[in-house]
# Entry
Amino acid sequence: MSVESTAMAFSTITGSVSLVLSDAPVAILYHFPVNQAHDGVLRTLDFICDTVDTSSASKPGKGKRKSSLKSHGNHSYFLSGGESFLVKMVAPLSLLLIVAVTIRAALYRSSLAELIAERVEVVSPITAWKRVIEGLALLDLGVSPYSGDVFHETPLIIYLFHFLVDYAEITFMLADVITAVALYMAVKDFNKQVFRKQKFSVEAERYPADCLELIRSPTEMFYIPLKVAMFYLLNPFTILSCVAKSTCGLNNAVLSLFILTTIKGNVLLSAIFLCLATYQSIYPLTLCAPAMLYLMQHQYVPVNPRRAAFWWFLVQYLFMYLGSLFVIVCLSFFLLGSWDFLPSVYGFILSVPDLTPNIGLFWYFFAEMFEHFRLFFLCVFQINVFFYTVPLCIKLKDQPVFLMFMQLAVISIFKSYPTVGDTALYLAFLPVWSHLHRCECLLHTWVRSGSTGSTGNIFLVSCVLLACSALFPVLWHLWIYAGSANSNFYYAITLLFNVAQILLVSDYFYAFLRREHHLTAGLYLKKKDGSEATLVLK
Amino acid sequence: MAASRCSRCAWLFLVFIYSLYVVVISEEPTPGNEQHASVADNPQTPAETVKQPTEERRWEATQVDETVPDDAAAANKQDLPVPDSVLTSTPPLKDEFQEELVIRPLHSGDIYASFQFRTVWETDFTRGRKVSHYRLFPKSLGQVISKFSVRELHISFTQGYWRTMQWGQPYLPSPPGAELWVWFQDTVTDVDATWKELTNVLSGIFCASLNFIDSTNTVQPSASFKPLGIANGTDHRFLRYATLPREIVCTENLTPWKKLLPCGSKAGLAVLLKSEKLFHSSFHSQAVHIRPVCQDGPCKTASLELRQTLNVVFDLHASGQGKREWSLFKMFSRTLTEACPLASSSKIYIDVTDNPQEDQFELSPATHLLSQAVVLGDRRTFSVYDLTQQVTFGTVRSLNVLIRWKSTEGDMLRPLLHAERYVAGYGLQTGEIHTLIYNNHPFRSFPVLLLDSVPWYLRLYVHTLTVTSKGKDNKPSYIHYQPSKDRMRPHLLEMLVQLPPHSVTEVTVQFERALLKWTEYTPDPNHGFYVGYEHIACHICHKSVLQVRNERIFQMCFSFNCRSSVVSALVPSTVAMNTNITKEQPLFSTFFPAKEESSYFIRVYTEPLLVNLPTPDFSMPYNVICLTCTVVAVGYGSLYNLLTRSFQVEEPNPGLAKRIANVIRKMRGVPPLVAKVFQSQLIQSVQTHKGRLVCVVNFATVTKIAPAVNYAAPMDAGTSAYLQLR
# Structure
């Protein structure tokens, strides 16, 4: 959709707002008196957000904004716009949900479901549905599911499915729907805040004059939440994961609820969902940091270790987080009557005894490892997942949501038993950062790119990811069934897949940092001699 | 009824004593005379006139016969005196040794030879008594038993697979490879450590790789392996069972096994055990069983029994050169010349059940000693050669039993119970183990206990377990499942399944193949991994013969004893010996204690499975480590770059010469050379200011050019930087 047509659509939605959008949104800011332009755009965006967010009245900030809106004396678009909003936004989302559920239901009924459920890329020893069923069967036999090495899910999952085993398909579809809706709402809220922040910056004239092209417009942001939901629901990785009934879908649902509650600023629920996610697989532990950063900013707590308020908030959040973790672990203990699940779930994740091939880096590495170096490399690889938290926090302390995205990506690349379901969750965030891509393309036309990667690679990287996804089953077949290849083939593809993921993430990171830099330093940098400058990392 | 039976028993006993007296008095050496004597005895026994008289064979006394007094064969017990006379003359022995060889001609033309050597020692290791004097019992085993507080020990080494469908049931079943199961005494505190130590010691004694038994192939079956000897408790915490399906059995295992015999391989039946012949066969199995048994009827004291068995099946085509003619010499390249002097009994049994009229095969030299025994639920008739009697060896002083077939046809044995097993599925990811259990009994259903021990690297999914018979789901009435722990312990699946009559029961369970660490593979990983056989233990109901339970025999014999002791006090010791039934029957028929009247116990082992696992490339650990670390480093490096650096405008690099010059200048303390100050560098930008062209001078550059200049000047310069160019 071209910018003009979006703009046209946009103007029809806003109805009573008499905005004439010209070719580019940037142009609005350029031609119109700044205040006027901002007001118009802001009003539009506020309207978009507020029509859905009815609970906003409780928040002081929003109340203020509403009153400012009222001062404009335009009440009518709330009503008229609300109806059209339902048509324009809720309808596509419901359509999307229906399509997604239909695809899944059709695949469940087909013969492919069994085939997909066996795929090592889709299910890991932890998340495999077959193993959950095995755990249930062991419970029925009166054997503790954790006495063996087949079942590695958490006790809550086994008790959940103890009741829901007959409705498993619905549960997994519901989990995907919840994830998509939660991401949709979270991203919408986040966009609203981004825009507000941008507004203040523009009003305060903090941005250099030549950076107007980098400023985001409501038109481009309007469909992002829907795109996020679509990226999640229609991603083949998610569909496969759901059809295989990988419990990864439930983890994703919990994580997305955590993201939603965090972005909504609900401290308690955020802590509880984060604790649930941590309980499911240790790694979301690192999301603690972005959540706290975000919530502090949300509550206007200064992120400054010298301030008491900072520590007080930290203690509060950690208390809620660890407290609920403690409650859940104790609950699991009382459900099973033994602590067996701790080594069987968390020991299994951390010590990687099961070397079943997957899309990660661990399996072949530890299959080929010399025994006396095993522990060392195990520690190195596991620390690698947690290692990036602190530096990323320092670098991205003003951008907690991007930090969250980075953490999710790092976890899904470097975790011990990754599946495509984990990848799908962070891939769903890519539309949120689509402006980076656009900005970078813009920059490419004007400025020579730097020495390290740029988002120009994204096309290449996406192709590599697609090719790898196609090659996984092919090389698996050659190795396991045809016997005409060996393990190295499959291993090579997992390597390539991971390199592509790493490049993808680092490209986004690079583009993000670069945009931030341009927003402070100006877009068209010149050398001292007046020639075009090359921006490098130093 | 009971009274009449008792009186009949008393009558028999009188006859027996009388005949003993007659035999001792007459002392006739030639078989002809013996025949004559037996024929002469015939009219004196009233009960035997029904079937016996025309036959010129003699029956060896067996307990079965005694317990079924109505049977015609029961009356002939004239042969007993031979061992009796030996035993009565010597004081009661502390230990006793028996040896026997059973030869069963198989319908396929193959021949099955089963050796059993039994040493019974009236001693008790359990009371912590230090036993240092050994006579017949091997000291090496005795020390092991006392040191590790072993109650029962069963070990077998087998090469080849017993083909139940062709050969029928073996006397003593054993799985391919090595099998070891041990019941420890309940005084043992750390069973696992003791077990580990014991396997290592046994490994040394038998020159086998039993030291490879560890926790990954050891299980504790809850129901399948009950103690075979007398036992107080059956707490399976004291049981350890392990198998090594890969174990190759050969000469180096046979030699230490033969050394355990009192006569070694110097005399007696053991001279036949020549390894070059024994291992040139389709099936070879050697075993050692140690268990406590009752010393006498009331079972007040226990004695230790050591049974060494060796079973071998000679192939018609490989060993017999295709001729249907077998002799001891042909089988073992030896003939027998004497019994082991230490043995109290030494016999050769030849199964002639299928050959009543000698139309199938003929035996030479002919023997007239016959014996009946209930083996595996079937009453079998055997021709007996007693090696303790010189007459057996004839004039050439050597015994070479020869079996020559007359006809080649013969109906195949159809065993009541047999089992097969195979792996279904393709590829190296998943698979399914199928076990077929056949119940060929036409009208009786019976329960079987199925034991399956699967190594951890085949991950069983017990929820996929299905048991179907006759197309219907057959739910096991008892399931004991212990899931595996990776690199710790195997899966153990035990279940009790009722087999409907004349049916095939199929047990299937799915598994997933694990990828192992490269050091965990065997040296020939693509050969595959042996997965232990399934083991089916079963009490089968008899078809025709009722085996009388032990307790009843004890009771009957005891009452018999009481009554007869009144009547004839002449031979009390002899009669007392008779009460211990385990010494009365042929050894091969007394291994498994019978618990019920109408059933007998058998074990069936299925084939071991050979399963392929996916393998990594063994040649490239370094490559894998390097490549994976590279990928991690790519991730680390790119994030590190972005995290630690910041964006800056690239400055042109000074040339090398200038850099060196700067270093020198720095050492001299002179301000370093600065890059040529271009006008463009000095002048930051040129703008129009209030209609005039204004050049903004780069302040930083100005200070760099003249660092020593008083700062007032640059300040001035700064303010006066708005140069009017025109």
About this structure: Chain B touches chain A through 62 residues (CB under 8 Å). Chain B has a mean pLDDT of 74. The radius of gyration of chain B is 42 Å. The first helix of chain B runs from residue 2 to 26.
